[in-house]
Amino acid sequence: MERKNMAWNMIGSLIYAGSSMLLTALVNHLVGTSQGGIFGFAFSTFGQQMFLVAYFGMRPLQSTDIRGTYTFGEYRLARLITCTGAVLFGIGYLLYQFYVSPSGYTVEKGLVVFLMVLYKVLDGYADVYESEFQRVGKLYLTGQAMALRTLLSVVCFLGTLAVTRNLVFSSAVAVLSQGAGIFLFDRKISLTLTKIQYSRTQNKQWNILHDGFLLFLSVFLDGLIFAMAKYAVDAQMTSTDNAVFVAIFMPTSIINLAANFVIRPFLTRLSALWEEKNFPKFKQMLQRLTSIIIGLTVIALIGAWFLGAPVLGAISNVELMPYRTGLLAIILGGGFFAVMNLFYYVLVIMKKQKLIFLGYVPVCIASFFLSYWFVKVGGINGGACSYLIEMLLLMLCFVYQAGKVFVTEEKKRRNQWE
Description:
The protein has 2 domains: 1-201, no CATH class; 228-418, no CATH class. By secondary structure, the chain is mainly alpha-helical. The protein is 87% helix and 0% strand. The longest helix is centred in the last third of the chain and has 65 residues, at 353-417. α2 runs antiparallel to α8 (204-236) and α2 crosses α9. The mean pLDDT is 87.
């Protein structure tokens, strides 16, 4: 079962991250880099931010809730509330862009952004099912559902775009196919599992939202920090520049994908070791996971130095040789982000959500000024360097916080034995 879980988690994560990585590149080829830049911002920047609102930081809570504090029915109702909030947030953002922002949005860009908000919110809703599959010990079902619904929506979107060359209509098809995928591959699978409890206690969904609120703020700030350079490029440069910047961000998806291969299958085990206060094995597993992520980052840097710019440029239909420095900075920053993500989960397991939030706030404030200033001064390469600095700061902050908690708990355990 463990091998099956790991294999399907890898397949599902590969298809999910790989399709996300290549979508903008393929849109560039089909309808040009100007529309590709619009789609890239809508899909991978603002749409992803709205996914985080829908997601609400609940996956770590739900997938590690091995005591069954809340039922699936309660988690699902809580997720419906956050998804509604994400859609309303997205509408508010678009109203601001149309009527307040000096740059302004065209009708086409506004529609594409709104449709990608709906697409990503549905993605966030699907996660409540896939988190539950993981919680009941069937991570392979998470991978299967993720793979199948992603393939369905991506094939429908790209097929429609290839035929019609209409980005707005194709985005609407993507939304409809995403909804169909959830019904076919998440909801139907969930009905076959007897361990999933659909019952719910009245108003208990608010307790979930309360428990996860700091995690939500933390994840939301994490998304802002991760994408702040993209927002800076969108605000100060052209849609074509957006397409270039999204292209050099592609390797971060590969690194995070590989990191998830390593991290996700061991979350439940890490939770159990922490609950058992088996600190030596907990530390050993954490060191091993960190070493693997570092190794993957080094391999990615070597590959990018020799092949990154020409290969990614050909895939994305943009010229990337002037931005090789930025590409390497993005990859190194992606490695820092992957390590940070591991220690984020560690702090969740340690039940130290406040420390996560306190780590994000100062880095988020710093990232706003760093990103806009670096992009203004250095353009795309400047934005990439700001991302590297921000990820380094965040990683160091989380590693320090988790290490401090670990040392404190280890001392308490030792004193008890004495």
